[in-house]
Amino acid sequence: MGMHLGLVHRSVAVAALLGLSAWAPAATAATFKVGSGPNCTHSTVAAAVAASEGSAGPDTVRVTRSAAYTQQAISFSVTQEVTITGGFADCTTDVEDATYTTINGSGGVQTTVMTISGSTGSLVHLRKLTISGGDIASASSILGGGIYYTGNGLLDIADSSISNNTGAYGGGINVNGTGDAAELDIGPNTTIFGNTAYYNGGGIFSNNIETAIRGDNILIDFNTATGITSGGNTTGGYGGGIHIRACLLPSIVELASPGVGQLGVVYSNSARYGGGVFIEGVQDCSSSGDAYLRMYSIDAMRRTKIQANQASVAGGGVYTSPNDYNANAADAYFWNASIIENTAPLASAIYLGADTTISGFGFQSFANFNVGMPPTGALPCNDDSNCGEISGNISPSTGQVIYGEAGTDFIASRIKISGNSGSELIRLPQAAIYDSLISDNTSTLRLIESNRLTLNGTTIAGNTIGTGGPQVLGVNTGGHASIDTAIIWQPGKQALHNDGDTPHVLDVISNDITTLTGSGSARLTVAEPRFVDPAHGDYFLTAASPAVDFAPAIVGDDRDLFGHTRNIDLALVDNKYGPRDLGALEREVVQPLVLNGTFDANVNIWPEVIVGVSSWDGTQNAPGTPAGGALHVLTNGTSISARKQCVHLPGPGTYTLNGWGKSTGSGPFTTGSYVRLGWEYRSAGSETCDGTVTSSGNLLLANNGTWRRPATPATIVVSNAAWTTDSSILVYLVVEDGPGSGIAPEAPTSTLNGWFDGITLDVLSDRIFANGFE
Prior knowledge:
mainly beta, 40-stranded parallel sheet, 5-stranded parallel sheet, 3 helices, 4% helix, disordered C terminus
């Protein structure tokens, strides 16, 4: 399906028109001042705008705070460019301030506060205004509550608040395009808050028009589309934040704002369908018009988000409703964007609808994450960060998180799908997921159910799947599964329930390969993936993971979940079938082998040996280590191993263990607490470094109040003959009364007090030098 790019072209045309206006002689522009008192030219906004129509323009209408604007029902037509702005205390000052001028419609005629008709080429700019109190009396009206715009020009709103209005369609703003040049721009520092629609579009109703919501500090929040109940039936209630409707003309919303602070741009709105955004290609139109949401980020630190919206029926975040009869699309495209923390009984994140009752050919309704080129103006995804996120969306045990009707597609690349809950995470006719992480979700049934399922370069792990889902994945009758270079690690669950044709499964590590095998399958392995810290959501691979350097290289500059280069061949690691890692994340370097050895803000990955005697200390740091803290041990006794870490070895070589330590002892090395590293090498241990110890030793770090790192590290030689895929070194953090070398300990009541930081395990090997690691 092609994407309409009229918004980009139109923006250029509008910019050119604005440029011509700025270039025109200043004498053509006029300023009209609305208010009460000296220098005011008009007492009403409508009269001032009407007067500006007699001027060549571009003109400015200043709505000062020298008068109270209550019981307002302003209506005007525009054929040229006019800016209507608040921010002036009275008509005598030419200095703007930060206080908006309020235009309030309550208490008068129950209608829209501001009704605007714009001819082709007209431009209306609204600035520093609070528009509130719109109160449409009749649900049969088509009008919006705060602003109703119809025409073929530009309505541009920035530095303003559209709040606490009630309308039939568009509680805050209702815009209707009558031609290809129609556009609504919502710019920086704009809030659309607390508005209510009887029918659809609690915040914005965007009909046959292109809308750009772009800039910092934009918030569409706490708006509601209630729907109207009559005779036991409820009509409407679509789009709590935004309703995108296409009938006679295309309707596109470009959503590109980081929101306000940590709040997403579409935040905490509510509706029956589409709590955040409802996208509709209308069925009863005589001609085709496609509806699109195009969502992307413009701030490298704060992603554009649809967040914490609620739907009482379906589609907490996004709901699409295409028209099958006229092939009117209703599609959503996301680039470097997030759908998080939304709720609904069905499809808390995304509902993809398709009208298949008329023609039966099943028009496509897409939710497309990060596939293909980004829109013009979109920031590329940050390195070391996923390119999109669906997380924290909550459906009950009877409703899916992502759901699609017949003929719909969900396409995702480089996204994190995590922390969601529902009956199923995904239930769709077609789902294609590339280079993505699906982790820590909860489902009562299978995690993913689809007719045609594609998983490529994806990790599925750490999810909680209920007794209603004995398998992780399900493919329906007549369907097909294609699974490549993937990790499916859900111990206790079968990988696939397949009612379709023979699946294509190639280069996969899973806890269960019996349900993946068949004539279309090859190179399947049962092996612990050895993630870095899955308990805390870190599904990077350790250097000794069997998923590292597993598969043949794939030609092309593709990237993993965090934007890292694929097909990195680690010289220390023997390739199983090639240099490509399985799953969502490529391991680019061997180091670090000891994980979180600098105790960066926590003591994760270091299990306690003795509970309660050690903790993270943010006040301490060894020289040259990151300012993330150190591990502190404080207890009584003669010797204690406080914490440990199991390190699997990626290959044979000479390994050197070292670290920084200090204590409250005096010395050097005569009395007080001694801080050391203990180690045990196992040639063929277990996943937790249990089993027969091949060799062991210890390394004294320090016994005084000065950080010290030994000049000579502990050396552990692992020969080719002694190394196996289960070879490991268990590292202990030990504090004692003596250095472990025959010196008599002090009394058992002695206080043991020591710190550790910068623990490293390096490897010296001709094989690793070949890859540039020295």
